[in-house]
Specification:
Subunit structure: Interacts with PLAAT4.
Largest sheet: 6 strands, mixed
Oligomer: single chain
Strand content: 35-45%
Cofactor: Ca(2+)
Number of helices: 14
Structural class: alpha+beta
Distance between the termini: 58 Å
Membrane topology: Lipid-anchor
Subcellular location: Membrane
Keywords: Acyltransferase, Calcium, Keratinization, Lipoprotein, Membrane, Metal-binding, Palmitate, Phosphoprotein, Transferase
Length: 760
Amino acid sequence: QSRGMLGCLGNLGTACFGYSRLTSLKRKQAAMIIALTFSISLSLSLSLSVSELMLSVHSVDLLSSKMGQNRMEHHTDHYHGNALIIRRGQTFQIELDLSRPFNSNTDKLHLDLRTGPLPMVSKNTHVIIQLVEELEDDRWEAKIVERNGNRIKLSVNSHAKAVIGKYKLTVTVESPKGGSATTRDPRKDIVMLFNPWCEDDTVYMDDEEEKKEYVLNDTGRLYYGTEKQIGDRTWNYGQFLEGMLEACLYVLEKSEIPPPGRGDPVNVVRVISAMINSQDDNGVLAGNWSGNYVGGVSPTAWNGSVEILKKYHKEGGLPVKYGQCWVFSGVTTTVLRCLGIPCRSVTNFQSAHDTDVSLTTDMYFDEKMEPFDELNTDSVWNFHVWNDCWMARPDLPPGNGGWQALDATPQETSQGTFRCGPASVTAIRTGQVYLKYDTPFIFAEVNSDKIYWQRNLDGIFTQIQCEKKAVGHCISTKAVGSDKRNDITHLYKHTEGSEEERIAVETASRYGTKPDVYSTSMAEDVSLEVKLEGEGPRMGADAQLTIVMTNFSSQTRKTTLHIQVAVMYYTGVLKGTVKKDKMPVALKPNEVKAMQWVLPYHSYQDQLVDQAALMLTLSGRVSETQQVLATQTSFRLRTPDLSIEAVGEAVVGKKMTAKITFTNPLPRTLKGVVLRVEGLGLQEVKEVVVGDVGSHSTVTRTEHFIPTQAGHRKLVAALDCKQLTQVHGVADIVSCWSQTWCIGTTCRVVSEQTFYYLGG
């Protein structure tokens, strides 16, 4: 800048020397020329100097106002304060005020987000966000979406599996000649939460009303009493009030879970179930069932979670006195909803406490039928309150996602710590107690038999009575969108006394400490399997499956198969049952019987979700041997392909054509069909509006595009329609330059102009 100024002054001096020798009239003209020349020279000099200035960040605006775009789009506008609170797997915007306009050709910029005490890129606790031309899903990246002088607005995309918690933000800029500059403002921290609105997040929940209830509702109802006299009370969760987000994050920070593990909701809810009680880790609440609450608050006196969590946070992690099951559950609901995990409090009436993992509730008597108090450690509570939380379970077999039972009341240890869950409610219902976590304990709470034992003179105990309907009644939670009680017993167990329920009980007992408490089958000589013919059932038609049963014995075998089909998300979460059926089967000696079973189209047409997956569950008991039969099979309904036909030669720079054909397989009209067509080196993403497509109708669309790159390319298309998903197609296209000379096996590519020149 100094050299430029000196140059301008030198030019001015030369002009002034000549100026003194001019006449009066010419002096006026010359003065104007000198002034103009000086102005232009100075402007050019300053322009050059500005472009070479070092780039720096004057300020960062996180656009974090409660009523701003970020908070509204991320459903975090209810949280107190004006911090930037966002949900993972979703874009957010920030604005940067720079020292000069940003030059995309020469300047560089990236963001750093760090969380935890020792941020590391390899642990996903240090995230480096680079600028890109176009944002893509499922990755961290940023794009400039607005420019206004020295200000730029960035759209930042976060990963759907990102670690949750508080992140520190730094902005680093680099200019060609000025080195780099980093800006860090401790007031500009960002809080990342789980995202039930993001399909790629493990906690995704598709029903909007359920999200409003289980994530956004800050009050609820808790149930207590007895099954014949159910009482209820309002509980203030208060997850959005001032200081609550900080308190809930504090609970997470005090837990045993390291920051890299905070991206997995299974890990998070498991550690929260431990941290809500103080039994072995100085958690939030001290339990007290003595009736003496001196030095604290009676559990029945609490009206909500806010005072408890704020007190715990303010006093530096000193357990709050006192809590019982409904208080533990209410606080758990607050913390998980605050962190973005759908959660509800659940009350089980006549709730068993199995102390020896027998999966039965045992009562022991001596020879005179006097109770054996030292052995009678199992108990049945009038009621017990725990939680359900919603998530996929990629760590379990398909079909076990959805509601997971979680219990923060300290009853028994799990892997050395007082915690319980998450246990798949589906696994509890079917007796699959070998699936983690703590499924046997919760199964016993809702569906164990109460067995009475008497000691014989020889000291051996004999079973004298079995109550099969003693526990697990009126399992209750608040209804969605109202204060009514919703009975969800059917989610936890089959109808009491049904064959399916008995099969679940006996299946579970095999994995307990008393596997022989129920009579074992005299033989296991019948097999059961499901077969899919060819490529499997097609969308829009009845789904036909083959059930194959084999009798390996030389005697007749009879059973009744219980058949159930449920819609399933690709994450393994079951949406709901679409059909139930019963099939009596008689097998001749050594017979292999293949039976056709049909799921009519009308049973599933309005129930399907993305990926069109279904879970078939079969169960039954062989009458002659009491052998239990059970199997599960997941299958999808095949969707049609889009047919893409390339027309003409593919030449770089020349227009070509492709015909895209689609046939609606459904006996109903598809509404608002859109095709998305693209191909690297062929065609940028383009939306083609098709409109409505009638039942079993065929439509063809012709698309024109110009190849920009030579070689093997793929033109792909996908159909976007609410009623039919996973429909796509591809065409292989080999594009070349305008002409190619071939000599022997050697081909030389030349341009069109060169070809004609050589030809001349």
